[in-house]
Amino acid sequence: MPTTGHVFIATSLDGFIARPDGSLDWLLSRDDPAEDHGYDAFIATMDCIVMGRGTFDSVLQFPEWHYALPVFVLSQTLATVPDGLHGKVTPIDLSPADTMRRLSEMGHRRAYIDGGQVIQSFLRDGLIRDMTITTAPVLLGAGRPLFGSLPKDIPLIHETTRAFPSGLVQSTWRIA
Predict the structure, then answer these.
(1) Which of 97, 107, 128, 174 could cross-link with 5 by S-S, CB 3.0 to 4.6 Å?
(2) Residue 128: φ, ψ to 5°
């Protein structure tokens, strides 16, 4: 059984996942611990995480490493991982399709795909099965977009939409 890719990410209303400098302050300020946005339930269904170098560098800024699953960082330049993350993080310099083949060979069935450019490349290659996108009620005007150019349309099937008291709106889409 091949590994499938799944997305769980937040955007501003105008479609940015981070400010131009990579900052997530606009999103972190809306984090209400009383609201369950489903991340824990989502991550419990995953076997591993695939992220890009930019996302990896961003999460290294957090006070602690919060991933229990194996993390594969797609990068042509990351040769070694920081102390304390050996055995938790594996740099991988493969195409999206080859990455999924390698994960499948390793026994991983469901991969959480994270990071704007990585999500875009996996979408272009038809390697994403579904996406849960949480939209924050804020316009940033500029930043790092979730979606980029595509060689063709990608039809989606709407699964669910939930609205939260904080103003966040979360929709799950299956790739048709």
Answers:
(1) 128
(2) -105, 130
* String of DSSP letters for 82-141: -TT-TTTEEEE---HHHHHHHHHHTT--EEEEESHHHHHHHHHTT-EEEEEEEEES---S
Residue with tokens 């055995």: 87
d(CA 54, CA 176): 29
> Which residue, chain included where needed, has tokens 């990579």?
22
- pLDDT band at 23, cuts 50/70/90? confident
DSSP code per residue over 30-75: T--TTS--SHHHHHTT-SEEEEEHHHHHHHTTSSS----S-EEEE-
Q: Which residue has the tokens 């450019």?
A: 117
Instruction: Say how far apart CA 79 and CA 98 lie, in whole Å.
Output: 18
Q: Which residue has the tokens 């669910």?
A: 160
- Written out in words, the top-level CATH class of the domain with range 4-170 is alpha beta
pLDDT tens readout for residues 101-160: 999 999 999 999 999 999 999 999 999 999 999 999 999 999 999 998 888 999 999 999
